[in-house]
Amino acid sequence: MQRTADIGFARLDLDRADRTGTPEVVYAAGKTPAETVACLAALLDGGATTAFATRVDDATAAAVRERWPDARIDAPARVAVVGELPEPVGDVLVLTAGTSDRPVAAEVAATLAASGVGCTRVDDVGVAGVHRVLAVAPELAAADAVVVVAGMDGALPSVVAGLTDRLVVAVPTSVGYGAAFEGLAALLTMLTACAPGVLVVNIDNGFGAGVAAARIVRSAQR
User: Fold this and answer.
1) How confident is the model at residue 197 (pLDDT cuts 50, 70, 90)?
2) Helix axes 206-221, 102-114, angle to 10 degrees
3) Fewer CB near the terminus (10 Å): N or C of the chain?
4) Which phi-psi region, left, alpha or beta, contains residue 55 (left: φ > 0; alpha: ψ -120 to 50)?
5) Rounded Cα–Cα distance for residues 208 and 22 (Å)
6) Distance (Å, rounded) from C-alpha 222 to C-alpha 114?
7) HEC secondary structure over 43-71
8) Mean pLDDT of 27-36
9) Beta-strand runs (E) in 3-109
10) Nearest one of 102, 7, 111 to 52, comparing CA atoms
């Protein structure tokens, strides 16, 4: 029987990690700081060694830190982690097309860490200077999977997928001028990538990309 923690305003899935390999994660956007803290506490009380919240604003981060002074707050990623991080296995290469894509890449990296998967970050290797991504060929060869985070025209994942036999998880970001339509242009480019082997998640969804890459790595480890 699957366990649920009913705390009134939320029903937390306590056995999701056993069932899917990914624990219940608290999406803090739309919740008050107190509600996010209550959700994290319920996960820990239910036996989780790590409780993880995404889209954490400053007020929520302060509330989490007040309850758990040793909590890990990753401000760029907007992530809070309470408890012990699992020992990492494998390695996922996380690339950004530009430095403005770093907050989403930070969410990817934080999700990988909470999932017990190693991460290597390389920023600012977009196609406006394609020699920069060619220079990270050794890292591409060594990675178990690759996450590419890109806004603007979203072209980088297609280039990367043409350079490696690893699965490429593409994350469009809302970075770009008007006709980028807050990430829609990058999303459509990635969905129509010429190179095969590209898995695309939603706009700014670093969490989803991190989970996908972590499952790939952990499946390979098994």
Assistant:
1) confident
2) 40
3) N
4) left
5) 11
6) 18
7) HHHCCCCEEEEECCCHHHHHHHHHHCCCC
8) 94
9) 4-6, 11-13, 26-27, 50-54, 72-74, 79-83, 89-96
10) 111
Q: What burial class does residue 139 get, using C-beta atoms within 10 Å of its C-beta: 0-12 exposed, 13-18 middle, 19+ buried?
A: middle
Read off the pTM.
0.90
Cβ–Cβ < 8 Å for 59, 66 = no
| Strands of 103-188, DSSP E | 117-122, 145-150, 168-172
How sure is the predictor about 201, in pLDDT bands with cuts at 50, 70 and 90? very high
2 vs 42: which has the higher pLDDT: 42
95 neighbors 66 (Cβ within 8 angstroms)? no
Across the range 52-57, mean pLDDT stands at 94
Tokens 């390389």 belong to residue? 122
**CA–CA separation, 7 vs 21, rounded Å?**
23
114 close to 87: Cβ distance less than 8 angstroms: no
Q: How far apart are CA 184 and CA 172, in angstroms?
A: 8
Beta strands across the sheet bearing 168-172 = 117-122, 89-96, 145-150, 168-172, 198-200
